[in-house]
């Protein structure tokens, strides 16, 4: 089942991010024919870059790889509800479908906060499917922040 395996790949990226000490979020860009174009996990700490969210890295990689500025007919799988910055990038990239896992009531920008896709200014609205493997994605985040508190860092 393509649907589930793409989110599994995103979860794998999230686990790898956690292993690097990054907030465990992973993203995968998939072409219309099901080909996985790019995968990424958060690298804000490693790159000293507050914009190095999984979604942005995956979108940048996919565009660079394909030599295009838009990912029309491509889908994005991400383990956590995108923040407003990433939701904006999803709009600009013309992502066809967005599949995401856990809800982010604190920093999310799709179902919470800025609700970027619902804003009248939004010029491209992807199809949105939430709650995909949500419990797994959420557990990764819970474990990561619990471990962080445990070490006092
Ligand atoms: Zn983001």
From TrEMBL:
The keyword Zinc applies. Keywords: Hydrolase, Metal-binding, tRNA processing, Zinc. The active site is at residue 55. This is tRNA-specific adenosine deaminase. It is an enzyme of class 3 (hydrolase). Catalyzes the deamination of adenosine to inosine at the wobble position 34 of tRNA(Arg2). It catalyses: adenosine(34) in tRNA + H2O + H(+) = inosine(34) in tRNA + NH4(+). Homodimer. Its EC number is 3.5.4.33. Binds 1 zinc ion per subunit. Belongs to the cytidine and deoxycytidylate deaminase family. ADAT2 subfamily. PROSITE patterns: CYT_DCMP_DEAMINASES_1 (PS00903), CYT_DCMP_DEAMINASES_2 (PS51747). Residues 5-111 form the CMP/dCMP-type deaminase domain. HAMAP family: tRNA_aden_deaminase (MF_00972). Its cofactor is Zn(2+). Zn(2+) binds at residues 53, 83, 86. GO terms for molecular function: tRNA-specific adenosine-34 deaminase activity; zinc ion binding.
């Amino acid at each position: 089942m393509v649907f589930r395996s793409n989110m599994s790949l995103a979860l794998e990226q999230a686990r790898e991010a956690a292993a690097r000490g990054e907030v465990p979020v992973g993203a995968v860009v998939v072409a219309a024919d099901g080909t996985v174009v790019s995968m990424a996990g958060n690298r804000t700490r490693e790159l000293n870059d507050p914009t190095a969210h999984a979604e942005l890295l995956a979108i940048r990689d996919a565009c660079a790889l394909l030599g295009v500025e838009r990912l029309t007919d491509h889908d994005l799988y991400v383990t956590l509800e995108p923040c407003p910055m990433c939701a904006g990038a999803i709009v600009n990239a013309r992502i066809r479908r967005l599949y995401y896992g856990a809800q982010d009531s604190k920093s999310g920008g799709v179902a919470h906060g800025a609700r970027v896709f619902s804003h009248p200014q939004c010029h491209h609205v992807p199809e949105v499917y939430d709650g995909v493997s949500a419990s797994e994605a959420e557990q990764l985040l819970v474990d990561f922040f619990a471990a962080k508190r445990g070490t006092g860092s």
